[in-house]
């Protein structure tokens, strides 16, 4: 079994189980369905689901849908697809909106306890009353409203009597707290917007801190993992959980029972970890949305996008992402990681798991003049050099072949180990050839290389062990299948496209060569693959058959990553 993972979060979980604080753990992954998930979210998913699984607990998928104006069911579908793709299964699929009635009752409870009040200040006035890091804030003139008046106003907010922004429900905490989040934060705002789940039922929507903490509590979440920017929201999180006290308030969770959901309330603990950030990428949903809307990429699932839908199409694997997350580890320090960590994890995963195939990306014809035009044979190639269980396949061989244009040089540079006029090279798994003559087309470009196959160097023969300088890949021209191959490269040319310096933004650093499309020739056993099959094309990189566009009749491959890190940005 895998070695025990050691980090501060797993240690907390271990301690809580050992001390009996919890007999079982429960986590959640709480995306807001306002965009597609990206590589950063993969870290949160791997931690939320991974830690629950490791300790015999469960993880809910909760759509944090408290901001209806920006949310869309299209995103909800993609989020579920992404979580499943990464190899995880949720315990329950929930929505923050499942709890709107519970949250509403919780807010009334706070009002009755004198812990919340309805405030008439406009957003600008609230801002002015808030104070600053050096100045305490001032109390709202409405702070001392009676419980009766607050209840009446809050009910009328719910009934839709007031216009957007006319009132808020605010927690009554401490306007001079050094933590700005505790300066009587808003718990509810008025927004007459249709919601994708609750329609027009609610003209008021709960604010993030209130909804998030109580959603955790109501689902019985024990460990609520989130990123560091929520660290100074934790006191408010704890305040909401404690003041509402769902575990001891069955009257508040009755609406759950009425809608067929279980009562599982707990006191959750929020634990923060560092965000995942890589250079050469932008990951903010807002900027990704702009790339899509401005047609700088083909869509959310463009293989150059850092969305999970994008990198999946590019050829990334769940195994590579999990490996990357384990390698990066968990800390309390945000940092910008080098993209080579991500690419390295992919190479490692595909080196182990991707079968090998032959494909020629930039073809030039080789004619084996001493092979009969009608000759055809099938050679047997291992699918994986280090894994016998991957089996073998038949590779057709005949008189006419394609090789890579740059595997031949008429005037070889110093140290050139491939084919030259009069020189020899080994054709991978087929034998040794010598180039006798170059044939040119009318433009003077090389159209054919006339070569001789050493008939004593065929596979299994004594003469095949003869030493020659280089080995190149090839495909049989007659049998090869033309394929559309997208050669992707980084979307940005600079390591930090996200710094808005010198009036420049990430848009100024788009790599004009981030996609090059060629027609390649691939062996039949590559073309015949199902969509989303990963291969190493020998010597040229790791590729995947396109999730949507590939078919054996019209093969389409995406290059996920080159074999080695050759980037020189
Ligand atoms: P963005 O800022 O990109 O819009 P977000 O934090 O608003 O992301 P959510 O949908 O709220 O996106 O995120 C769901 C969960 O994923 C949260 O718990 C959040 O902390 C976590 N998460 C988001 N981005 C990252 C990241 N870069 N690294 C690790 N976890 C992340
Ligand atoms: Mg968020
Ligand atoms: Mg966000």
**Multimeric state of these chains?**
single chain
What low-confidence regions span 5 or more consecutive residues with pLDDT below 50? none
Distinct small molecules: adenosine-5'-triphosphate, magnesium ion
As a percent range, the share of helical residues equals 25-40%
- Secondary-structure class: alpha/beta
Q: What's the architecture of the largest domain, going by CATH?
A: 3-Layer(aba) Sandwich
How many strands in all? 25
If you had to describe this structure to a student in words, what would you say it looks like?
By secondary structure, the chain is α/β, with parallel strands linked by helices. The chain folds into three domains: 8-273, 3-Layer(aba) Sandwich (Rossmann fold), CATH 3.40.50.620; 285-353, Orthogonal Bundle (Glutamyl-tRNA Synthetase, domain 2); 359-473, Ribosomal Protein L25, Chain P, CATH 2.40.240. Helix content is 26%, strand content 22%. The protein is built from 14 helices and 25 strands. The chain has helices spanning 8-18, 39-54, 73-85, 100-112, 123-129, 147-158, 208-219, 234-244, 250-258, 285-293, 308-314, 318-328, 339-353, 524-527, and strands at residues 26-29, 58-63, 93-95, 116-119, 168-171, 186-190, 204-206, 223-227, 269-273, 355-357, 359-360, 363-368, 376-382, 392-398, 400-404, 424-427, 431-440, 446-453, 471-472, 475-476, 481-488, 515-522, 534-537, 541-545, 556-561. The longest helix has 16 residues, at 39-54. The chain is elongated. Residues 30-32, 40-41, 43-44, 226-227, 275-276, 283-285 line the site of adenosine-5'-triphosphate (ATP). Adenosine-5'-triphosphate (ATP) binds at residues 30-32, 40-41, 43-44, 226-227, 275-276, 283-285.
């Amino acid at each position: 079994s895998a070695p025990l993972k050691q980090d501060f979060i797993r240690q907390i979980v271990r301690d809580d189980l050992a001390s009996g604080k919890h007999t079982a753990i429960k986590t959640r992954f709480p995306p807001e369905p306002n965009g597609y998930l990206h590589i950063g979210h993969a870290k949160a998913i791997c931690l939320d689901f991974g830690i629950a699984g490791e300790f015999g607990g469960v993880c809910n998928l909760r759509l944090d849908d408290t901001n209806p104006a920006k949310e869309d069911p299209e995103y909800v579908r993609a989020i579920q697809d992404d979580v499943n793709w990464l190899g995880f299964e949720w315990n329950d699929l929930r929505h923050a909106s499942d709890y709107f009635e519970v949250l509403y009752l919780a807010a009334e409870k706070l009002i009755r306890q004198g812990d919340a009040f309805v405030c008439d200040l406009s957003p600008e006035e609230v801002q002015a009353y808030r104070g600053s890091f050096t100045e305490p804030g001032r109390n709202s003139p409405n702070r001392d409203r009676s419980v009766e008046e607050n209840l009446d106003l809050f009910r009328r907010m719910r009934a839709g009597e007031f216009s957007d922004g006319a009132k808020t429900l605010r927690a009554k905490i401490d306007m001079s707290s050094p933590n700005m989040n505790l300066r009587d934060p808003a718990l509810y705002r008025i927004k007459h917007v249709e919601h994708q789940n609750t329609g027009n039922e609610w003209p008021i929507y709960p604010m993030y801190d209130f909804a998030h903490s109580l959603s955790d509590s109501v689902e019985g979440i024990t460990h609520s993992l989130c990123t560091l920017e929520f660290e100074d929201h934790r006191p408010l999180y704890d305040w909401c959980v404690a003041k509402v006290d769902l575990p001891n308030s069955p009257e508040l969770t009755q609406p759950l029972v009425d809608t067929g959901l279980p009562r599982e309330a707990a006191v959750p603990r929020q634990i923060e970890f560092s965000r995942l950030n890589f250079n050469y990428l932008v990951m903010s949903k807002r900027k990704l949305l702009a790339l899509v809307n401005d047609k700088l990429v083909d869509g959310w699932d463009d293989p150059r996008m850092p969305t999970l839908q994008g990198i999946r199409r590019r050829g990334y694997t769940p195994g590579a992402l999990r490996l990357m997350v384990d390698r990066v580890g968990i800390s309390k320090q945000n940092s910008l990681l080098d993209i080579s960590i991500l690419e390295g994890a992919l190479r490692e995963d595909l080196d182990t798991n991707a079968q090998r195939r032959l494909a020629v990306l930039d073809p030039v014809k080789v004619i084996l003049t001493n092979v009969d035009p009608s000759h055809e044979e099938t050679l047997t190639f291992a699918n994986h050099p280090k894994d016998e269980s991957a089996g073998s396949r038949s590779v057709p061989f005949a008189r006419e072949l394609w090789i890579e244009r740059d595997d031949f040089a008429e005037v070889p540079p110093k140290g050139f180990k491939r084919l030259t006029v009069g020189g020899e090279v080994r054709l991978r798994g087929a034998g040794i050839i010598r180039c006798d003559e170059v044939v040119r087309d009318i433009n003077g470009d090389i159209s054919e290389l006339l070569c001789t196959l050493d008939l004593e160097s065929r596979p299994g023969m004594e003469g095949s062990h003869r030493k020659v300088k280089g080995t190149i890949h090839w495909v049989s021209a007659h049998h090869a299948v033309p394929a559309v191959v997208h050669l992707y490269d980084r979307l940005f040319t600079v390591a930090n496209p996200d710094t808005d310096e010198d009036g420049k933004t990430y848009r100024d650093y788009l790599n004009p060569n981030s996609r090059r499309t060629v027609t390649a020739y691939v062996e039949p056993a590559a073309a015949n693959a199902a969509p989303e099959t990963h291969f190493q094309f020998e010597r040229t990189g790791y590729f995947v058959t396109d999730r949507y566009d590939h078919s054996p009749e019209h093969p389409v491959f995406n290059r996920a990553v080159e074999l080695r890190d050759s980037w020189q940005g």
